[in-house]
UniProtKB/TrEMBL annotation:
<dbReference type="InterPro" id="IPR046700">
    <property type="entry name" value="DUF6570"/>
</dbReference>
<protein>
    <recommendedName>
        <fullName>DUF6570 domain-containing protein</fullName>
    </recommendedName>
</protein>
<dbReference type="Pfam" id="PF20209">
    <property type="entry name" value="DUF6570"/>
</dbReference>
<feature type="domain" description="DUF6570">
    <location>
        <begin position="3"/>
        <end position="43"/>
    </location>
</feature>
Length: 97
């Protein structure tokens, strides 16, 4: 398992930033206006550290193929299993100088 110091710059959560972002969403995004911010849940976060819930959910995998699959897109590749690979809906963009 990696040390906390090795992952801190990647996984750190800042409680004040989370709270400010949620308040902004609540005030400015109509999809969040009906959401009640649970301050007791926010209070459980460290001020500036990796949350314990991330450490508890972390696992090490030696299967590189599975790890790569998890990082790949959730959107299926439109070019895989197409009946005619020469058909494309993309439009090339050319630069004019």
């Amino acid at each position: 398992m990696p040390q906390r110091s090795q992952l801190k710059h990647i996984l750190t959560v800042r409680k004040k930033k989370i709270c400010a972002a949620l308040q902004w969403l609540n005030q400015n995004n109509p999809l969040y206006r009906h959401i009640t911010i649970d301050q007791s849940t926010i209070d459980k976060l460290a001020d500036d550290d990796v949350p314990e819930c991330l450490w508890a959910a972390m696992e090490i995998s030696n299967n590189a193929e599975a790890a790569e699959s998890e990082r790949s897109s959730y959107i299926p590749d439109p070019l895989i299993n197409t009946p005619d690979s020469n058909i494309t809906t993309s439009i090339p963009i050319t630069a004019r100088c």
